[in-house]
Specification:
Elements (H helix, E strand, L loop, with lengths): L1 E6 L4 H11 L7 E7 L5 H8 L4 E3 L7 H11 L5 E4 L8 H6 L4 E5 L11 H7 L4 E8 L9 E8 L6 H24 L10
Parallel strand pairs: 1-2, 1-4, 2-3, 4-5
Antiparallel strand pairs: 5-6, 6-7
Amino acid sequence: MNVGVLVSGSGTNLQALLDAEAAGALAPAQISIVISNNPAAPALARATAAGKPALAIDHRGLARPAFEELLIAALAGVELIVLAGFMRVLTPHFLSRFPGRVINTHPSLLPAFPGMDAPGQAISAGAKESGVTVHVVDATVDGGPILAQVAVPVTPGDTPATLHARIQHEEHVLLPRIVREIALGKIVLASPS
């Protein structure tokens, strides 16, 4: 199964996927392209270092439909799209081209704390636990069917950074596992209605 990974930043989730693939733990999935909307994203260097095609499609200065058309063209032949720290909301136009085949990882136990700074939201709300969710992307922000979650306790004295670091540890294990289970047919993605 050909996987396209969309990134915007440092690429730690991408690195977890690359490491899993190098260890044979992603098969039969294989990363066929990495695309960033941020030409300066360190994730692109990670992809290049792993021998993967890496492409920057700068969203700045482009209307959203034009940006998405460039993404769609670059993702030709991709069977699964993984949003790994991709900081752009995708529209129904894009999602309709890959129905039920776009997944995302989010640093909270959705539906709690969608959007930006989920660890900070959890701490501010006095939550006792947070975690990571891998879900199918739909037209809502951090919505869509949940595929898997792992809880992470919020401890006294946590900052958004310390909580996020613990969440990322779990995320880096969960995301490759879910991609592999999709590729193996153990998780069947249904088209969103």
